[in-house]
Amino acid sequence: MTDAVSKFGDRLRDSSKDAGFPTVAALARRLNIVEQTLSNYWKGKRFAPADLLFEIADVLSVNPRWLVTGFGERQLPPELTSNYEDDVAALIHDFRSMESWQRAALLSMAGTIRGRNVIDIEDVRRGAFKNEPN
Q1: Residue 111 belongs to what H/E stretch?
Q2: Is the domain of 33 the same as that of 93?
Q3: What is the pLDDT along the chain (134 residues), one digit of tens a residue?
Q4: Could you tell me the pTM of the whole model?
Q5: Distance CA 43, CA 56 (A)
Q6: How many domains does the chain have?
Q7: CA–CA gap between residue 123 and residue 20 (Å, rounded)
Q8: 66 and 109 part of one domain
Q9: Are 91 and 41 in a shared domain?
Q10: Domain end point (choices 43, 59, 80)
């Protein structure tokens, strides 16, 4: 374990606690990752991959550069941070106002982004999920 990785673990652990995630389990649950994986980062055994690092930084509202290196400002400027609860509320509102075929297409895209197919996109293109008049 290098000193840089160890210090990354220290910054991750301190930032997690400051952001209201006092345990590995709490943050792992929020990130939807395996506790053991996060534990390796938390203990300073290894760095997180870039995509996860940015997600962690976003959840903790810290600068990803600072999280990895200790350089730069710890906190990002407010205009670059998102409020998770507000984002979720806005997404739910938008989702509820969509037609069923739009919801299906969005879920399919989300599944594709996360590496799994939720529905067959061809069904969406054929209009299988459109609201049919009664």
Answers
A1: helix 100-113
A2: no
A3: 678 889 999 999 999 999 999 999 999 999 999 999 999 999 999 999 988 999 999 899 899 999 999 988 888 766 666 666 677 777 788 888 888 888 888 777 777 766 655 555 555 556 655 554 43
A4: 0.58
A5: 15
A6: 2
A7: 42
A8: no
A9: no
A10: 80
